[in-house]
C-alpha cells in the first residue's frame, strides 16, 4: 500500500521508518543536525508548498530519504492506520 504525502507524491508504506511532527522533533539539536546532514547529502525531498508540518523517514536498504510534507504527522499516521485496516479486510 501507499501513503499520499501531498503534491502527487506517494511512498510505499513498507518503506516508512517514522513520521515526525516538525515542530516537536526539531527542538532537539540531534534531529536538526540529522536533517541538515541529509539535506547536505541531497536526501531531502520537500513536497510542501506551504509551511512544513511533518517529516517522514523512508528507508530502502541502507539508503535513507527524508520527505518534508505540509500534512500534519497526526493526519499521516491516521492514513497509515486506515491503510492497515484496509489490508486486513
Explain what you see:
The protein is globular. The longest helix is centred in the C-terminal third of the chain and has 16 residues, at 73-88. It has three helices and six strands, in the order E-E-E-H-H-E-E-E-H. 36% of the residues lie in helices and 36% in strands. A hairpin with a 2-residue loop joins strand 5 (54-60) and strand 6 (63-69). The protein has a four-stranded mixed sheet. The mean pLDDT is 90. The chain has helices at residues 22-25, 29-40, 73-88, and strands at 2-6, 9-12, 16-21, 44-46, 54-60, 63-69. The chain has one domain. The chain has 89 residues and is α+β, with helices and mostly antiparallel strands.
Summarize the model shown.
With 89 residues, the chain is α+β, with helices and mostly antiparallel strands.
Amino acid at each position: 500500500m501507499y501513503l499520499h504525502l501531498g503534491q502527487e507524491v506517494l511512498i510505499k508504506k513498507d518503506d516508512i521508518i517514522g513520521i515526525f511532527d516538525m515542530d516537536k522533533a526539531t527542538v532537539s539539536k540531534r534531529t536538526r543536525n540529522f536533517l541538515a546532514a541529509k539535506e547536505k547529502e541531497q536526501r531531502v525531498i520537500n513536497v510542501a508548498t506551504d509551511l512544513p508540518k511533518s517529516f517522514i523517514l523512508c528507508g530502502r536498504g541502507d539508503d535513507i530519504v527524508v520527505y518534508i510534507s505540509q500534512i500534519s504527522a497526526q493526519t499521516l499516521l491516521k492514513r497509515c492506520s486506515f491503510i492497515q485496516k484496509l489490508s486486513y479486510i
